Amino acid sequence: MTEEIIIAGFGGQGVLSMGKILAYSGVMQDKEVTWFPSYGPEMRGGTANVTVIVSDDRISSPILNEYDTAIILNQQSMDKFEKTVKPGGVLLYDPNGITRHPSRKDINIYKVEGVEEAAKMGNVKIFNMIILGAYLKLKPIVKIENVKKGLEKSLPERHHKLIPLNIQAIEKGMEIVNKAS
Predict the structure, then answer these.
(1) Closest to 49 measured CA to CA, from 78, 87, 83, 88
(2) Range of the domain at 30
(3) Total domain count, the chain
């Protein structure tokens, strides 16, 4: 099994954190992993993306031009990365702020209302964990107990009290992901 993922959105949406948690989760499951972030100098508000590869085999390069899955969180990322999903692959997106929805017919497109659900749950910072949960429902490449370990590894200890809320957000994302029509 090898899963090649691009996660892309605005800085401040938790794009890099989501990738890091996924990568740590893969390490906790004895997988080979790469985590390759890319972001503009403006950080918050600028574009950010991260490539994550999780594999049973050695990974030759963290640099990719095509992906099994694209997780898209803003319009600029949709414009840039929709075309990079391999035929038969998955594009998962939050429709908040998306003006041109994905239109490819050769990929599987899913939608998750992460921003809306995070607001309902009373904490917009868990948005990225809702998205991660939706992804893990579609592609359960790591076990939830390893995601918890990944959260423990990537979050500073002073934020460990938020891990139960993050797990709750992941579970909510698993519940609300839908095939886009």
Answers:
(1) 78
(2) 2-179
(3) 1
